[in-house]
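Usage example:
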Amino acid sequence: MIRTQLVLRVNNQQHEVWVRNDRTLLDVLHDDLGMPDVRYGCAEGVCGTCTVLMDGDPVSACTVYAVQAEGHEVVTLRGWSDPQEEAHPLQKCFLARGASQCGFCTAGMLLTAATLAERNPDATREEIRHELVGNLCRCTGYQAIVDAVEDYLHLPAEQTAETGGAQ
Amino acid sequence: MTTVEPGTTPDTIEPPEAPTKFDPDADSGPLERERNLRIVGQSPAHHDFVNKVRGTLLYAADWSLPGMVHAKLVRSDVAPARIVSIDTSAAERLEGVVAVLTAADVPHNAIVEHASGGLGELTIDQPVLAFDQVRYVGEPVAVVAANDPETAAEAADLVEIVYESLPGVYSPEDALADGAPLVHDEGNVLVNWHLDRGDVDAAFAEADVVIDNTYRSQHAEHAYLETEAGVGWLENDVVTLRISTQVIEHAVEIAAILGLPQSQVRVIASYMGGGFGGKEDMTVEPYIALLVWRTRRPVRMIWSRQESILASTKRHPFTMHYRTAATKEGKILAVDADIVGDSGAYPCLSARVLFAGAALSTGPYKVPVVRIRSRAVFTNNVPTSAFRGFGAMQVVFGYESQMDALAAELGLSPEEVRDRNHIEKGDILSGGEPLTTAVAVRETRSIALEMLGEPSHPSGPNKAVGRGFGSSMQPYGRSIWFRDNASAWLTLQADGTLLIRSGVTDLGAGQAASLCQIASEILGVPLADISVYIGDTALNPPAGGTFATRQLYMSGNAILRAARKLRDQLTPVAAKELGVPEDGVVWRDGMVRTDDGDTGLSLAELVRAATDAMVDTSVLHTWRARTGGFDPKVGQGHTYPDYTFGTHAAEVEVDLETGEVRLLKYAACHDVGRAINPVRVEGQIIGGAAQGIGYALMEDCVAEEGHPLSSLFADYLIPTSMDLPDIKVAFVESGEGRGPLNARGVGEPPIGPPAATIASAVEAAIGIRPKQLPITSERVLALLDQRSGQQTQNGERP
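Running the assembly step on the lines above writes:
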């Protein structure tokens, strides 16, 4: 299998990697760069557990070859909100609502919800549900997640200030 | 009459004990001094929540070690078939391949599951790697390890297996037929349970009405988002596995497979990305262990989603034939039920699942006379095993459908017919034992129905709206003859922080967090000062696995007792230091102090005083569940320690042209005894209802002669955020659970009622009862055709 040398920009850092061309962005982020907040769920682009932001848009990292990600700005949950810093207000809403049970979908849910909040800060419950359709959750029945996103959208503006590296 | 299969090992077991009165103190209720709860009943965000929301939790697949190799299974693509030959040479020659193992490389190639505890169950070996034949599509035949996952996958494709096809059976009906091909030489019936009470024929002879129906359910996939995964390595010559598993106690079986003493296998459970019963049997463990032992290198195995859908265990499809005899007043005289579960190709936990199906087959109703039979039948389908609800959930669709049919037959309301039959505290269950805790099922029903609010109107012509409800009864805790126990170990550290060590595994439902909350309640240690170490066979006292809604009940009780013991052990030290009587010492806010707060010690000071006084600051406690016996020959005995009751209610709109069922409203209410953490309880109820709604309306592992047609996540549909309405939730706190501080388990119960509830709502909308799950558009259209056929026959206009 042909290998390629790549420079990936992930979470505001340059990473030089030498990868097989059939390796997905998910494989490289999780296995080669050691980023456990990007998770394998299906490799079909269905479940959303490997969601990352690519140039600010949520994408399933399993549907992108690593070689295709060169030249793009990739952000994972931990780049969007650094665990060394205070939690993002959206994360606090998730905590207050118990919007995470097993937690496997949570990183993807947060990133998808965060981009929704930027694009459509007045989203209705229906619109939130519509936006989250590509992120499966088997534990919560989605309700606490929708509640948390709604809570976040209804926070006073000064409390929703962006942190981290959302593009 | 004996229905125990030949060749099995029925045991004689002591008869049921006399009825016991529920005693909340003896049964884990709060002591006088604990009545004013401060931490229990709150919903703090624990360590697990925080790590998940920050993206810092390391799941099973997130572990990586130097020199680690990647493992991949070679699975059969036909079944049943005789294995003629296996050629591994091409795979072995591939650059980067480290090992290719087949059955010949497995020291003891047999997993023997006696899920019933040995009662009337065939003894069947399940090979770790198939050797003479394969019995289902997806059965592991070989395992490879390579330096990277891509090479492992390539090598797996290079293993050449020649099969010779054998005749198969793909439904229990076919497997039970005379002359059917045998899945195992020992026979096609794994276990044949029966419950017998009273004279069934006499009861049916004197009945005014008999309701006779057959209900069918489907194979369902757990679909946890984290597939089966783990990493293993060798440390001090101990095979050490860090696995996504509900049951670290499989270490014993892994040792047996490897032919090692149990002291040489250690299993650590990572926090799971969901389990729901699907990680209760072993998954990746034996393969990782074999490769670690063989290669002496760290090994990782992650099942692909497609493997998980293909070959992980599934929920048992049940065929349930119910006959219910009743008086014209609607009083049930007897139930005669025959339940058949498709066990697939190997036993796994089928014997226990089918026992639960039998024991709970009459639901929360008083049925004086029963003849219940339940059989687990082998087929050449994928093995079935534990899945949230565990047999007790499939039968809800049966017994609630029968109640609605009885109501319709007698012209009574569905509520009225249930009110005339509801079980109450002190009544005898079908299994023969008395029920000794509160039954708040009526309260849960009236709350659930009220939460539905005003009825909706159809959104257009050719739409029909209907409402229905379903109640259920789900055990928590293991079958009672297993003499269940769980241990917990508490240590107060020098700085006053608390360590909890427990062998509990955490599926994501807060199993570890609830232990912290209970310990914090009793010892007054702030949650931030508690660390909990779980899921390690080497470093934790055993807790017995997380399944059967047993961990709050078992480990919660263990931690409650351990915390009280630690408190009682150290209170004299505190009293002496403070110069007050022992009953004047309270444990609160990280201190031992007088009630008025005038004088006190920090816990760090208390530990220093205890050290000086040579009093231990550590407690290891084992808690034992109540026990009893079951006699499989007589078909009577003790079954489960206790039950959780609840009711769901739904409003649906059916599109009469497309058959589509849209859920407009949904409400769920359960008696949880006491809510330890209300946000988590609500999360369990909504999440369980959501899984049950998927089961009711869409989920189905369709197979053709054992070949699955749904092999992708894209075609095994689970509910998305768009498929569910907002679910209204309430809980009753009857204060009569047998869990810590009178909690009842709530993990499994909420998945029980949805199918019956939705079937009942659909029936209200279209006038005919769905009797087969899932209730897809195609099936609804078929029912509508059936209805118009009946109307035409009766001279009505279609």
